[in-house]
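Section 5.1 Outputs to date
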Amino acid sequence: MRQITRAALTLAAAVSMAAALAAGTAVVGSAGASAATVSYTVTDLGTLGYISSSGGGLNGAGQASGVSSLATTVPVTPCPPKYGKPQHCVKRPQHAFLYSHGAMTDLGTLGGINSAGTAINATGTVVGSADTAAGHSHAFTESGGVMTDLGTLDGTAASSNALAVNSSGQVAGWSTAPGGTGDVAFLYTNGSMTDLGTIDGGIASVANGINDAGVVIGNSDTASSDERGFVYHNGTITDIGTLGGPNSSVDAINNNGVVTGSSQDAGDVSHPFVYSNGTMTSLGTYNIDTTPQAINDNGEIVGTTYGVNASGYPFNDAFVYQNGKFQDLNALIPAGSGWQLSDAIAVNVSGQILVDATNSSGQTHAVLLTPAS
């Protein structure tokens, strides 16, 4: 089971995008922004001092969480000499942030160097992972300026990450399993972390979302090393199946219990889908590979899509799916805005969308799209 942080993916995408922009290449998807009608305004959330930020979650009030690089540096050890001369090795920490009322606030860490915010609930509680003073990464909640260590399923020297939180403060994510046998999904309620297990004898799982009814969704490997999406409720973990192929994955659930993700069909073609009341429905295909990231209570879905444009250049573009139609978000912002939208991360009930985007200088920032009035 892969455990790749959004920050790492964002930095990799930024390098690729910066190279394309430097070469003067238009890195757009199937619809060109220059021909689009303006449907969203774009608000740059900024950074915590250095050049990059990445979104994590968005609530109905337009508050956002995520991660950003700091202007300060910290020493890195060990720092081997170069050409026989001592070096001064440093790196820039990345910290979780809360964006609210036009300002980005550094949420700090659990005593270590780095942290990242992955989700936020209706009351403004942020969850994510943060380094401890001992150098281990632990799941946290942050509210009212206080960051709380949620611990792990395998002691203080293990790792965990909180990926979702509902309006009651229940938290879902992953932790090192008891005995260090792998990483498993957890549900954290009333101060207690519960191992949600795996599907069909698998050894690893991760919980990606939770709705206000306490229904948890996530992904698990199986004994045959396939990956399957699951729904967990009232102590039961359910394999949601596939569209005919061996693998499926789920990424989000709304308060109506509708789940979205992607699955292979019998021909190993990946389809985005919705899953509701035990039935998985394909949304068709869009470009080469399309990954939903979030769904709101209106059924609007956002995510990222990969393809190759008419000039033969690959692209990763943010999309929105609404009214039965996929749309490239780059076609729905003002022409000449200077932003290339690569990954739509969250969408609230008002239709605001949290997106990772690259500006004309090749810097990746979290931006907030708001439907134009």
